Amino acid sequence: MLQPLIRWTRAVLFSLAGVAAATPALPASTVATDAVRDALATTPAPAPAATQAQSAAQVRAEAVARASAASDTVALTPIRGKTAIARSTAYNSVPGQTDSTPFITATGTRTRPGVVALSRDLLRTFPYGTKVMIEDLSGKYTNMLKGRVFIVEDTMAARKTNSVDIWMATRSEALNWGARQIRITAVR
């Protein structure tokens, strides 16, 4: 009696999953081409010339306002490249936190300051050998990370996702780091 009910429930769930997974039809490519052409063809109206009635102070105030609006669009970090926001923890060379070779990374180098381990999903974006900068989003330890370049040379356990592990020399440093949100950015 219970088996037919389970089969029926599975059939309904799978059919609903198929309906939810259906994607809407995309517009014809000519629609997109025409929209791009129209956007590029339109030219903005020229800015009106400053009249003599405007005082020099008003002109300066408008220039400062434009400059501050333009500076809002500029990136705050001097580095450019791929970025990701991830969970960060720290580790040190102890067999309980690593495999049977605690001082050897996945790339075969020795652990040292500046080495980071990434989860396997992040390794697709930041492969081994990538130089990265790390920004602490909590704001607590920005001086510790400021201006430092790390290199991806290790990986984490397969169960970890969207995670970065920073190698530290001592267990107490690793415990003080704890777990926090960071932004990792590839350095070019």
Automatic annotation (TrEMBL):
Keywords: Signal. Residues 1-27 form the signal peptide. One of its GO terms (molecular function) is hydrolase activity, hydrolyzing O-glycosyl compounds. Transmembrane segments: none annotated. One of its GO terms (biological process) is peptidoglycan turnover. The keyword Signal applies. It comes from the Bacteria. The keyword Signal applies. This is 3D domain-containing protein. It comes from Deinococcus indicus. The lineage of its organism: Bacteria, Thermotogati, Deinococcota, Deinococci, Deinococcales.
